[in-house]
C-alpha cells in the first residue's frame, strides 16, 4: 500500500504509540473491572481508545486520496518552544521550586504567566487580547476549581495572603 496522506500517516502512528504507552503504563496499577474500577482502568481505556483512533487515522491515510500527498512540513520550532515553556512556567509558578528558593505564586499568577508565554508562540503578540484572555481564564479557573470543586490550591502568592 502507498501512503496517500503523510500527515495523517504520521499522526496515526503518533496516536497509536501514545495510546499503547498509556495502556501499557496503566497495567502497573490495579485495573479492576467495569463495575469496580481501579486506578488503572481509566488510563487503560483511554490508551485503547487513543490507539484505535490512531489506527483509523492511519488506515484513512492509506486509503483516502489527497491532492499533493499532504506532505509533512518543517518543524515549527517557535511555537514548540513557547508552548513547552508556558507549561513549565505554569508548573513553577503554581507550585514553586523550593530546592532553588522560588516560592509558589498561586493559581492566578500561574494562569497569567501561562497565557502570556503561550501567546508568544504566534508571531504577532497582542497584549490587550492576551490580558483579556488571561483574565477570563483566571476567573473561570477560580470559579471551577476553588468555588465549585473546592480544591485546596494556593490562589495568591504567599506575600499577598500572608
TrEMBL record:
Short name of any one Pfam family annotated for the protein: TctB
Keywords, ordered alphabetically: Membrane, Transmembrane, Transmembrane helix
Segments passing through the bilayer: 41-64, 76-94, 100-119, 131-153
Keyword Ligase: no
DUF1468 domain: residues covered: 10-152
InterPro entries: DUF1468
UniProt superkingdom: Bacteria
UniProt keyword ATP-binding present: no
Protein's recorded name: Tripartite tricarboxylate transporter TctB family protein
Source organism of the structure: Caenimonas terrae
